[in-house]
Design goal:
single chain, 158 residues, 6 helices, 39% helix, disordered N terminus
């Protein structure tokens, strides 16, 4: 199990990934002021007027399908990252933008194992929630080992 599930693998910083920030490509095609463009996005789209500080903000390589390049932002404060994630859930629901937390590979592998269970239980009307690499169904934690080797959640509750 990874020791720092909420942090970037390389440097222990709270990291978010922002997709479809097409205005960045138009306003800053040379990737010079990505942090400034991101600050503007946070103010205008997420309604967070405070100045949020970052350690590093950069774009990933251009995508082959022509979509805007993804921005990766390492926040100085976890509290700021959490505010941005919460505001994104509330303000970006019906938009083409998405913001999510970047996890280490080990955690993503565990989440991927649990993802089909998440979808199945959600369709069944149960309350489901991910917290890092842990899946909670109606308040009960589901472990990846249970999914791979044990009974399903619905079977266990009968």
């Amino acid at each position: 199990m990874a020791e720092t599930p909420n942090h970037d693998v390389n440097n222990g910083l709270a990291t978010c990934v922002i997709h479809q920030l097409d205005t960045c490509e138009k306003e800053d095609p040379d990737n010079i002021e990505t942090e400034k463009v991101l600050q503007t996005f946070i103010e205008e789209k997420l309604n967070i007027p405070d100045n949020i500080n970052f350690h590093v903000v950069h774009r990933l390589c251009p995508q082959q399908d022509g979509k805007p390049r993804t921005i990766v932002a390492n926040f100085e404060r976890r509290k700021d990252r959490d505010r941005v994630l919460k505001a994104a859930r509330n303000n970006l629901r019906d938009t083409h933008y998405s913001i999510y937390e970047q996890f280490p590979t080990e955690i993503m592998e565990r989440r991927n194992i649990l993802w089909p269970i998440f979808k199945r239980e959600q369709r069944a009307g149960r309350r489901v929630q991910f917290k890092e690499d842990k899946l909670y169904v109606d308040g009960r934690m589901i472990f990846p080992q249970e999914v791979a080797f044990g009974p399903s959640t619905t079977d266990a509750q009968k």
